[in-house]
Design brief:
By secondary structure, the protein is α+β, with helices and mostly antiparallel strands. The chain is built from 9 helices and 7 strands.
Length: 182
């Protein structure tokens, strides 16, 4: 049962119309899908944390003797200041106290697309009516908005470098940049 290369090429040549049709159809579907997806912009900031390590664990380190006497075990791994900051940025507490008061709720939960010519946001009419400036069904809760925040927030802190990259994805590049600055 050997495969002859000449026979294989002959079969491919005979089936060339089907091969071209399938390839063209795949290319057409790819272009349609790519054009139908909304443009999402990424704004990223690279930060270098200070070298002073004033972590929660180091503050609690002086209490370790007292904790051993009381029978309470403190964690052995000391988290760096940047690790603590990253976890705080990811937290609901940071979102509700620092992020949410500086943004419009509809900009995180109801944006459908951004129009670059007019620099206007288009909202999903099923969620938010921008003309009346009111919510259609109900105003999303802080917890619902936090889920959107978790989806658009990106934090990358490679262990081999001291840099921390924070990014936000949004339909509007201006909002993405402003939100990264927050």
């Amino acid at each position: 049962d050997e495969i002859d290369l000449k026979d294989l090429l002959r079969v491919l040549w005979i089936q060339k119309k089907i091969i071209i049709f399938i390839t063209a159809l795949g290319a057409l579907i790819s272009v349609i899908v790519a054009l139908s997806l909304p443009n999402i912009y990424l704004s990223e900031s690279t930060l270098l944390p200070t070298s002073q390590e004033d972590s929660l664990s180091s503050k609690l380190g002086s209490l370790s003797t007292l904790s051993n006497i009381a029978g309470v075990a403190l964690p052995k791994d000391s988290a760096s200041k940047s690790d603590e900051a990253i976890e705080r940025i990811k937290s609901f507490d940071f979102f509700s106290k620092n992020f949410l008061p500086n943004i419009k709720l509809e900009n995180i939960t109801a944006v459908k697309k951004w129009l670059p010519d007019t620099n206007k946001l288009v909202y999903d009419k099923k969620i938010y009516d921008s003309e009346q400036q009111e919510w259609i069904d109900h105003k999303p809760s802080e917890q619902q908005a936090f889920k959107f925040y978790q989806e658009i927030l990106g934090i990358n802190a490679p262990k081999n470098t001291a840099f921390v990259r924070i990014s936000i994805q949004h339909e509007s590049p201006a909002l993405a940049q402003r939100w990264v600055e927050i």
